[in-house]
Amino acid sequence: MDEAAMIGPTCSIQIEATAKRSIISRTLEEKKMFEHIVLLKLKPDVSIDQQEDAVKRVHAFKGNIPGIVDLSAGINVTEETEHMQGFTLGIRVTFENQQACRDYIQHPLHQHFLQSIGPFAEGIVVMDYPNESVHQKGN
């Protein structure tokens, strides 16, 4: 007796429906854009020129690392100084999907940036989350 016959036709239909929903859900997840946000707390002796150079190097990721849809980076200029907590650089990268973010983490250009900025950093916060927007190829 096959498995479907053992569990009955109603259960078999529910299992098929659940499997289809799972496939559809994974397909939608693969199409959801993915956000990667980084806040860097640089040591006090890091000059503005060094900070600006770091921002330029981050901007070079776009067009050189596959899967990046949008990217922004900059020096913290908030007037809400009571909330800065010492973080001096912000980076936001929007990826085509979560896998593109995973690939970016391992990309040599990103790894080189991490190695070069590491000695100047005394703190980092990273936040990743799926963007509710669905990426449309060609947009």
Q: Could you walk me through the main structural features you see in this protein, from its secondary elements to its overall organization?
A:
The structure is a single chain. The protein is an alpha+beta fold. Helices cover 42% and strands 29% of the residues. The chain contains 5 helices and 4 strands; from the N terminus they run ααβαββααβ. It has helices at residues 3-7, 9-31, 48-59, 98-106, 108-117; strands spanning 32-42, 68-75, 89-95, 121-134. It has a 4-stranded antiparallel β-sheet. The longest helix has 23 residues, at 9-31. The model has no long low-confidence stretch (mean pLDDT 84).
Short overview:
By secondary structure, the chain is an alpha+beta fold. The protein has five helices and four strands; from the N terminus they run H-H-E-H-E-E-H-H-E.
Strand order of the largest sheet: 2-3-1-4
Q: Could you give the distance between the termini?
A: 51 Å
The helix count comes to: 5
Structural class by helix and strand composition: alpha+beta
Key phrases:
single chain, 139 residues, alpha+beta, four-stranded antiparallel β-sheet, 5 helices, 4 strands, 42% helix, 29% strand, globular
